[in-house]
Amino acid sequence: MQGWIEGLQASIDYIEENLTEPLDIVEVAAKAALSPFYFQRIFGALCGMTVGEYIRARRMSQAAQELARTGAKVIDVALKYGYDSPDSFTKAFLRFHGVSPSMAREPGASLRSFAPLHIKISLEGGSMMDYRIVEKAPFTIVGVKRPFNSDTSYQEIPKFWDEWLAKGKDRPVMGTFGVCIDMKGKDFDYWIADLYFPWEDVPDGCETRVIPGSLWAQFPCTIKTLQDTNTKIWSEWLPALQGYTLAGEYDIEVYLPPEEGSDDMKVYIWVPLNRV
To answer: Which CATH superfamily is domain 132-275 in?
Structure first.
């Protein structure tokens, strides 16, 4: 567990040392020896915010302190912290602090402070998670995909599902799988898909994708507990994982019909692994 925490802290320290420089998520994630895809999931689960939100909050906090204690011009501070114009900086500053940059100079101005993160995990009792590790051969999915950004995906992916399910029986795939596939950096493709067999036609508007054979950690949950289970995977289960490392740059949600006599859909989260 300690190795994961140290790696994440090294990434946070790197962000702190480069707040006034362009920050590339690939370089930030590399400090934790993780792909951007997994780094952003783990960061979000542990820290309760996206990497982008954290960087913006730290920059806004530092910018306010600089305006309050120095005679620096607003345009100079805006450029220093990565804003192209005073207008965009002022809008972001108002959203974060509730006052304009010029008002930040006034004595007694109310400003928000956002301190650097220091990651610590305190284990106060056992937290049970049901899972099993299975090996699966390669399989092919067929479905529709849409690009997403890690900063907004938690809000936007449910909208994608709502749009798709609203098609009712006219939709060409039912949605057995929800698949995140890394496209590097902050961007990834999210698929709504079914299992594909080679003798079937590919429906109009759909594509196919081969999911490589792998070991998979499979976590049962429900629609209601999906996000909570996902958070526990990255914040509790993964830091304690021994004998395996993350494989691939994708993860899968599986939605199966209710068993006979039950009204609850069976839901799983699959995470690919390699044996150490």
So the answer is: Regulatory factor, effector binding domain (3.20.80.10)
